[in-house]
Each structure stands twice: as C-alpha cells, then as structure tokens.
Amino acid sequence: MLTKLFTFVSIFDDIYDSYSTLEESKLLTIAIERWDEQAAEQLPGYMKFFYNKVLETVKDIEEDLKHQGNKNADYIKKLLIDATKCYYNEAKWREEGDAPATVEEHLLFSMPSSCCMHVPALALVAIGATSDVIDWAMTYPKIIRASCVVGRVINDVASHERERDQYSGQQQVMSTVEACMEENSYTAKEDAYNKLRELIEESWMDISEEHLRLAAAQPPAPLLEVVVDATRMLDFLYKDQDAYTLPQALKRVADSIYVDPI
Ligand SMILES: [Mg+2]
C-alpha cells in the first residue's frame, strides 16, 4: 500500500514541480479535492490516466483496509488531497511570490510540500493507528516538523550538488540552498551546504528528543518509530547523493537485501 501511495506522491511532486503549468496544476488540485471520476473531464489529457489510476487504486486500498477492520481508511483520501494542496501552494508561491530571504521563510511553503508528514501519516493509517494519532500527525507536531525539515533540506542539498554537476549551476527552482546563501550573504555554495547540514543535525536532535519525551506518554512508541524510520529512510536516500532521483545508486543495497541476501 505504501509503495503505491509513495509512487503517487512522487508523480504528484514531478507534475507540480516540473511538468504542469500553474493553471494545469490548479485544475489537478481542484479535481483531486472533488475526488470524482467525472472531474477527470476538466483535466489536460496527460493527467487523465494518472488521475483515474489514483482514484481506482485508493478505492482498492480502502476496501482492503476495511476488510481488515481498519476504521480510518478514509484518511488516505484526506492525506492525498492535503498533499496536492501543499504542492499547489508551493508552486503558486514559487511563481507568484517573492524570493524568500531566509531559510525559515522558504520552509513555510517548502516544508509541508516535502510530504514528510503525509508519508508517515499514511503508514500510521496502514498499521491501524487510531484517528487521534493520525489527527495529531496532521497538525505537524514538533517531531513531524523536524522530520519535514530533514526531508526538505537533505533533498535540496543532495539535488543541488547533483544539478550543479549536471546542469553546471542552472538552478530552476530556488531551494533552501539559495535561501541560506541569501540569508547569510554567502558567496560559496559549500558554506550553505555546511550550514544546512547543521540544521539537519539540529532537526535530528529534535526528533530524538521528542521520540524519548513522547514515548513515555502518548502516542505509543511503535507509532513514533514510524516517523523516526521514515526520516531514517530519507537519510539513507540522500546522505551521499540524490539516490531518490538516481536510484541505480541503491542497486547494490537492494541486491543485498532482496536478490543475494547477505
Ligand atoms: Mg517538490
């Protein structure tokens, strides 16, 4: 279930970030909010297949979960609708807004659209967390917020390094790297990378602290581990390079788990 939903989230990200015009992405956001096959009529041709696939797949997943006695299957729809709104807000801000002067200002829009709240929240739905816990996750408590900051910033640093090599510095989207350079009057990108790596470290400290603090109370520890593990996955994907965009970098690891287990 998570693989399917994660795939959708990735495709949404590509549509909003790189493929659609703002007007088209607005149509997609409205259609997703309607969540109705008829709404596909209003979409550009290239989105129709994808849109219908999302509706169809989520319907199957919801049925499966309901068969398992899961009472919160409806949250999948809610979370995907919310994710597309976050993507749309980010796209709109990029196109119409002023260039952010600080990392914090950048994160106002780019933190929710990291979808690092949505993915663990979907995992919480899958493992049968109560609606209280899923609602809690959706309010961006400190541990989730820190996970989103790790996700956004680690992605920006890794892809910035990759894009710099690939396109010799032609950055299409202003990332937290540029915001960090602007904020600190840096001229070298490496200074921004180092500063942002410090922010990642600090956010990990928040995650550990919140994990320990909350585990003693509510929600129970296994649910918090979903958030910690989702953030670990990001660390694994982006630590050395942008292995999310260039997954061949993970071939050896995937082989050692699934093909030739060590
Ligand atoms: Mg994006």
From TrEMBL:
Official protein name in the record: Uncharacterized protein
